[in-house]
Amino acid sequence: MDFDSHPLLSWLSQVRRDFHQNPELSFQEFRTTAKIKEILSGLGIPLQELPGLPTGAAGYLQGSGGRGKVIGMRGDIDALPMTELNDVPYKSVNPGVMHSCGHDCHGTMVLGVAKKLVESGLARKLKGGVKFILQPAEEVAGGAKSMIENGVLRTPPLDRVLAGHMFVDLPAGQVGFFKENSHAAADTFKLTLLGKGAHGAHPHYGLDPVVAGAHLVTALQSIVGRNVDPTESAVITVGQLIAGTAPNIIPDRLFLSGTVRTFKPHIRDLVKARLLEVVEATAKAFRMEVDYQFIDGVPACMVDPKVTEEVFQAAVKVLGEANVHWLKPKMGGEDFAYFTQAVPGTFMRVGCGNPAKGIAGRAHSPHFDVDETALAVGVEVFIEAIKTYLG
Q1: How many CB atoms lie within 10 A of CB 113?
Q2: Are 228 and 143 found together in one domain?
Q3: What pLDDT band is residue 1 in, cutting at 50, 70 and 90?
Q4: What is the DSSP string of 193-213?
Q5: pLDDT for the residue 65
Q6: Same-domain check for residues 43 and 141
Q7: Are residues 379 and 307 in the same domain?
C-alpha cells in the first residue's frame, strides 16, 4: 500500500496540524474536545456523556451486522508545557505549550478510523461495535482513570481495547508491539532531610543535610544493584536535590525527589520497602529527622497476548512481515495501563521517523515532529484489526 497517496492522508494531515497548532495542557483540552465532538457528530456517531470530566470525548458506532463484541480505540489528546522550536507552518500558536509526544497524532488516528469505518461502508458489515475514546490528561497520568470512573468502559462494555503511539525510532511505514509489558509502573518519592544550619567554617555546630543527602543519593543506587534480581528490571533516579542559599552556609534542610520504574508488582513492592529503609537509616546515621513520601503512580501497562497477536497479524497483513517488529518494553509510564487492567488490550508503536525529511527529534523534545504518512499507517492497521475481530 502506498501511504503517500492514501486517500485519507490529506484529511488526517489537516486534522493533525489543527491539533498541533492549537495544543492544550492536561484537563484544559477544551478546543480540542470541541473539535473532536464536531468530527464524531458529523460522522453520525453518537457521543457518550461523561458528566464528571471537563474535557475528553467518547463516541460509539454500532455495526449493522449485529450486536456482537465491542472494541475500544483510545487516543490521548493533551500536550506538554514546553516551547516548540520547529520552523513549520503548523507550529504551536500557544506560547509554552507543544504537542511534543504525538498526542495530536493519536487523537487524529482514532478519528481517522471512525471516518473510514463510516464513509467506506465498513460499519454496515461489522458484527459488533467500536467505541472511540479521546482521552485527556495522559501526561499527568490522570485522564485514563478519570474516564473509567466516569463510565467510558460501560454502555456498552468493552471486550478489548487498542491504543497507538508515535515512535520516532522506527521509520514511517513500520510498527512495533510488546509481548508482555509495554510500559513500566511510574512512582515518585519525595523527602526533606531536616538538619541544623551553621556557618560553613564551623560545621561541628550544625547537622549538614547536604552531606547526608549526598550519601543518600549514592545509597539509593544500591537498592537496584544489590536487591533486585539482575534478570529483572528496575530504575531509581533522583531528579531533584535542592538545598542552601550561599557557599559558606550549611543549610538546615535539603529537599530530594525522584522516580521509581518497575514492571512486576513484587519488584515494585521490594523497591518501595527498601527505599523507606534506606531513607530512614541514612537520616538516623546523620542524626536528622526526615519527612518522606512515596507516591504511587500509574501501574505497569500489561498487554494481552491474544489481542496482541491478532493485531500483530493484522499489521503484517497491511505492511508485510518485514515492517512489523517485537519491541523491548519501555521504562516510561503510560496511563493506558488503567484500561488494560480492566479490559484485554494491546499497545502499538507507530513508526514516524524520517531523517531524510529532518524528522528525528525524540518525544518530549522541542524538535519533535512526525512523518504524517504514519497517520495513515496507524489507521489501516487498526481498521484491519477491527475487521478481523468484528468481521
Answers
A1: 27
A2: no
A3: confident
A4: EE-B-EETT-GGGSB-HHHHH
A5: 77
A6: yes
A7: yes
pTM over 0.90: yes
The boundaries of the domain holding residue 192 are 185-298
Cβ neighbours, 10 Å, residue 372: 24
Beta carbons of 158 and 58 less than 8 angstroms apart:
no
From residue 111, alpha-carbon distances to 15, 56, 160, 206, 263 in Å are 9, 13, 18, 62, 31
CATH assignment at residue 286: 3.30.70.360
Using DSSP's 3-state secondary structure scheme, residue 292 falls into strand
Kindly list the strands in the beta sheet with 69-76, ordered across the sheet, starting from the edge strand earlier in the chain: 57-62, 128-135, 69-76, 160-171, 345-353, 175-177, 324-326
* φ, ψ dihedrals at 359, nearest 5°: -100, 95
- For the segment 216-254, what is each residue's pLDDT rounded down to a tens digit? 999 999 999 999 999 999 999 999 999 999 999 999 999
Angle at 183 between CA 166 and CA 220, to 5 degrees: 130
Torsion of CA 350, 354, 355, 361, to 10 degrees: -50
Give the residues across from 196 on adjacent strands: 207
Residue pair 75/131 in contact by the 8 Å Cβ criterion: no
Give the type of residue at 296: D
User: How many structural domains are present in the chain?
Assistant: 2
Long-range contacts of 61-64 (CB under 8 A, 24+ apart): 61/114, 61/117, 61/118, 61/123, 61/129, 61/130, 61/131, 61/132, 62/129, 63/123, 63/124, 63/125, 63/126, 63/127, 63/128, 63/129, 63/130, 63/390, 64/123, 64/124, 64/125, 64/126
pLDDT in tens, 293-326: 999 999 999 999 999 999 999 999 999 999 999 9
% residues pLDDT > 70 (the chain) = 100
* CA pair distance 112, 104, nearest whole angstrom: 12
Helix, strand, coil % over all residues of the chain, rounded to 5: 35, 30, 35
Instruction: Find the angle CA(76)-CA(82)-CA(88) to the nearest 5 degrees.
Output: 85
